[in-house]
């Protein structure tokens, strides 16, 4: 198995949904061109919505399996709970259909209306019944961070279902200077991930829910690379002294995808967090994806370790069966 846990999909039914639901503020132009979203114009390519095209895309990149998750611009935590729930359920149905069309190659993560935590828990239960193997949420809802007590129903449900939770940045808090050069993505995504996981650790949320497994994308933001600073702060800052444990103690409950865009950074990530806590993640089919994910991982880690990162590490976490690889 060579699996990808950071692989985005957008069911085609979302286009029709936007066309008839003005509350989302998305204009549909032509068949699959979307305008007005948080990241500007968005064109749906077949690799996002067509199961066969997605599998072919995986094979082109040396992979054979994906755990699909919706692209974050489609979270819409800013709309009312009824609309958010309807969209989440529509997306989950679409991802389930894509996985059913290619059961040897595709699995899926649920999305939930996180702006309404009780509903999010209910939608997650239903999605789990329908076969999702994980859930993807934003690093915040824009107005609330994930350690806010209001999200306890969601965390409790994820723990009860023993379902991995992938954090993906989507709602950026205002940062001066990020309005140019794609810095909201290039720097902001990493920062939002770091804030989210550090708050979950420092607030005790992960200690209250030790059965929750967290996956953070983009190699974990700045966490692996600034772990020493986070650890040092516990010894010199009064507000850090009550920190439950050293942040590195959570590696294992927290896992990292391998998306670094740099071989030296990837080598450091594996050494810092442990190869057992690294998962293949590509960001396909988005333009910020790793162009050659498998060959880059092999070049850095060697065939044996790369096989574990793309195989057993993922299979054990998500409960996947290993298909016969057609990409080798």
UniProtKB/TrEMBL annotation:
Presence of the UniProt keyword Lyase in the record: yes
Transmembrane segments: none
A GO MF label: carboxy-lyase activity
Keywords associated with the record: Lyase
Gene3D superfamilies noted in UniProt: Metal-dependent hydrolases
Domain Amidohydrolase-related: 4-320
Superkingdom of this protein's organism: Bacteria
A GO BP entry: secondary metabolic process
GO CC field: cytoplasm
The UniProt record lists the keyword Lipid metabolism: no
Name of the protein this chain belongs to: Amidohydrolase-related domain-containing protein
Organism lineage string: Bacteria, Bacillati, Actinomycetota, Actinomycetes, Mycobacteriales
């Amino acid at each position: 198995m060579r699996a990808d846990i950071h692989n985005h999909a957008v069911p085609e039914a979302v286009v029709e949904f936007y066309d008839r639901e003005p509350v989302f503020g998305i204009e549909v132009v032509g068949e699959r061109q979307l305008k007005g979203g948080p990241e500007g114009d968005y064109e749906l390519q077949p690799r996002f919505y067509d199961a066969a095209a997605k599998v072919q895309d995986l094979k082109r990149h040396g992979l054979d399996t994906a755990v699909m998750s919706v692209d974050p611009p489609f979270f819409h935590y800013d709309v009312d709970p009824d609309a958010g729930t309807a969209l989440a359920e529509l997306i989950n149905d679409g991802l389930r259909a894509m996985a059913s069309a290619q059961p040897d190659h595709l699995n899926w993560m649920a999305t939930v209306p996180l702006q309404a935590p009780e509903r999010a828990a209910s939608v997650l239960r239903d999605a789990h019944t329908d076969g999702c193997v994980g859930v993807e949420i934003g690093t915040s809802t824009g107005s609330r961070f994930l350690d806010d007590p209001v999200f306890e129903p969601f965390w409790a449900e994820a723990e009860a279902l023993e379902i991995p939770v992938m954090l993906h940045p989507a709602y950026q808090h205002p940062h001066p200077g990020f309005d140019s050069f794609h810095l909201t993505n290039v720097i902001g995504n990493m920062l939002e991930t770091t804030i989210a996981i550090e708050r979950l650790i420092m607030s005790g949320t992960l200690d209250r829910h030790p059965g929750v497994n967290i996956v953070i994308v983009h190699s974990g933001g700045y966490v692996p690379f600034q772990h020493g600073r986070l650890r040092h702060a516990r010894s010199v800052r009064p507000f850090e002294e009550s920190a439950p444990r050293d942040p590195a103690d959570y590696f294992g409950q927290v896992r990292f995808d391998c998306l670094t865009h740099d071989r030296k950074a990837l080598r450091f990530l594996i050494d810092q967090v442990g190869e057992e806590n690294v998962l293949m993640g590509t960001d396909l089919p988005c333009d910020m994806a790793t162009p050659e994910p498998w060959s880059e991982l092999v070049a850095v880690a060697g065939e044996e370790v790369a096989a574990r990162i793309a195989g057993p590490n993922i299979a054990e976490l998500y409960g996947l069966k290993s298909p016969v690889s057609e990409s080798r």
